[in-house]
Amino acid sequence: MTELKFESSNDYTSGGSEDVTLDVTFTHPRTGETLVRPAFWDGGNVFLVRFAPTMVGKWEWSASCPQDKSLDGLKGSFKCREYDGELPVYQHGFVRVEPGNKYMTYADGTPFFYLGDTHWGMYTEEFDSPGPHAGDTGAESHFKYIIDRRVEQGFTVYQSEPISAPFDLTDGRVDAGDIEGFQLADKYYQYIADAGLVHANAEFFFVSSMRRELWHDDAALRNLSRYWVARFGAFPVLWTLAQEMDNTFYGIFDVADNPWVKVAEYIHEYDAYSHPLSGHQENAWHTSVTGRGTGDEKRDADGVSVFASSEVAASTGHNWWAAQWSPSLTGPVSPDIVLDYWETSRPAINYEGRYCGLWTKDFGSRAQGWISFLSGFFGYGYGAIDIWLYQSNYDIKEETFDGVEHVTPEDKLKPWSESIEYPSALQMRYLRSFMESFDWWNLVPVLKDENSFKAEAAAYVYARTPETHVLYFFSKETATGEITDIQEGKSLQLTWFNPRSGEKSDPIKITVSEEGRLILPEKPDTEDWVLQVSE
């Protein structure tokens, strides 16, 4: 990203800059490619525009600002050289959604492995100090320590909400009192980008903080959206709108009058890079895509997403699903939920589930990741106590049961300096390494009611590519089952993968029987195991 600074002959401190529209057009003369980036006010008489070149060579720019003649008509140029670093997001380009794909890719088409970590209170994580929960980590910066450690653990996405942000946009405008907070926010965004993470960021404020007067103030929503895209849109980002805004935030909005749909339209309009855009969904018991798999007694508008129709998707740029699904840890996956997301044309990410140390433990957190990827959710949002929401008191006084393990109030008091090292966090790297050892993006979920697998295990999930079968068995038994539709006489290789240690067994070679049946071996023990069957 490069940044250009413009200084007006006018000082906008007292009145703000809502009426000033400064756009900068960037043109690559050799190819003719043109991108228009909105500039943003950075206090006083200063406006900034941020631009991430999409190709090397000379770029020319010209500024347009009808309301301020001192900014209008300015021109310049610069040269962009080839990136020589090692971060994939700059080697391959911004993450995007390509029509027809069930997974995200980089700009050059390379599949992007979405492994997110949840930080709804990002701005409460101390940037310039270790904070009171740092323990013996030796951290000089709470925020930076977690970022660096998550990168080491294999995470690729940082998921944030602007809860307790250092700026206040609930009045519908950016004023002089917000600028210092935004300048601090820049430091968070920049550090995330410099670490090579993609930032799945929600916009403006916590969803319920939108005042009713703002719901119908299109001009204010447009200005806020423009400012957000201008300030942060040249970073590697994904837009997620707001906390659980799809479809009604549990009854706060009417589906037909949900203001976040307008926000999506405006973000889409101003985003020259067309970063992936979604709306963080309510729990899948309330909202899915078409309502399939939701609970009848809890859902609004039959559980249908406000972005379900192709018309709304086109106008808003909504092109992926940020689902909130906590699958069963004791039985097969829900075919209704899996099919509801799988049968859409848009990729789905299991954006939020049970947090480790709050609503589940290491097994549940680990299992959610495997279940998600093998159910066609090509991405998973992990979360841990005191990290998902720093210093939170939410639901910490009662014991929680995830169907397998109890999480006690004492468990929930773990500080981030301890939860950052939960085994399940490192086990996310094992999951990623396993998936990246073959073409994971070609996986297709195989459901329990299909005839291709005869299950003996009580809890499993199964997906396959044309060359590879992957089965995750997660019940406390050694039984597995048999695959019933493999070509007879085919030679296969069976390998056990330990999702707790990242170790693989020696391969077992086997030839399929004349009936096309492959009787699978029992699990090595009663813990969770992954079986890979390859040609």
CATH architecture of the largest domain: Alpha-Beta Barrel
Radius of gyration computed on alpha carbons: 24 Å
Can you count the helices?
Answer: 11
CATH hierarchy, class of the largest domain: Alpha Beta
Looking at this structure, what is the CATH superfamily of the largest domain? Glycosidases
Offer a concise description of the structure.
This protein is an alpha/beta fold. The protein contains eleven helices and 28 strands.
Can you describe what's shown?
With about 525 residues, the chain is an alpha/beta fold. The chain has eleven helices and 28 strands. An eight-stranded parallel beta sheet has the order 13-12-11-10-17-16-15-14. A hairpin with a 4-residue loop joins strand 4 (about 40) and strand 5 (about 45-50). It is globular. The two termini are about 45 Å apart.
Keywords:
535 residues; alpha/beta; Immunoglobulin-like; TIM Barrel; 3 domains; eight-stranded parallel sheet; six-stranded antiparallel sheet; 28 strands; 21% helix; globular
List the helices and strands and how they pair.
Elements: E1 2-7, E2 23-28, E3 33-38, E4 40-41, E5 46-51, E6 57-64, E7 75-80, H1 88-92, E8 95-96, E9 105-106, E10 114-119, H2 142-152, E11 157-160, H3 176-194, E12 198-201, H4 212-215, H5 218-232, E13 237-239, H6 259-270, E14 280-283, H7 310-316, E15 321-324, H8 335-342, E16 348-352, H9 362-374, E17 377-382, E18 400-401, E19 406-407, H10 416-419, H11 423-435, E20 444-446, E21 453-455, E22 460-464, E23 468-473, E24 481-483, E25 491-497, E26 508-511, E27 518-519, E28 529-534
Parallel strand pairs: 10-11, 10-17, 11-12, 12-13, 14-15, 15-16, 16-17
Antiparallel strand pairs: 1-5, 2-3, 2-6, 4-5, 6-7, 8-9, 18-19, 20-22, 21-24, 22-23, 23-28, 24-27, 25-26, 25-28
